[in-house]
Amino acid sequence: MTVQLAALVAGCTLLLAGCSGAPAPPSEWSSLYGADMAQGIEMWAQEAPMSDAQREDLLDGRVTEADAMAAFERYRSCLRAAGYEPFGIKRDGPFINFSIPAAAVESGVDGPCYASEYAAVDTIWQSVENADVGDERTQLAECVSQLGLDFVASSGAATMDEIRAAIQEAGYSVDDCA
After folding, report:
1. What confidence category does residue 133 fall into, taking pLDDT thresholds of 50, 70 and 90?
2. For 22, which DSSP code?
């Protein structure tokens, strides 16, 4: 299971899937992140209670890069504790691309680890704090498609810099998509 652009889409959907255990009342999350995100945070609660650390990351109304990296490490530690190791971990601007062993998903370990330690932080980090970067990734993917270079994005693990380089290596420029 590769987690990157799909994680952004899934994360937005999933954050619209809350974290409970000790969730803030919906009105508190709404005042911090808006009604849609608050609803998502509550929906995550159905998967697993939110850890105190993730809750703390959210309570100031802003998710920082340090919050996002710490939340990812908590998620990774949760998976490791169950005997699974994320792989292919690579930074792509403010985002982390990674893959999860299929067995972690099939065993039911991944969902609760993600929900309790990383889901809300990840989604807010990607869709609120870095929405412009997500938009740029979408534009690059559309550019690749327009140029008939779908193979570039099909790897899924390609960073934005790698996609740009592949466009240039094929003799095009991102400006060719304007």
Report:
1. low
2. S
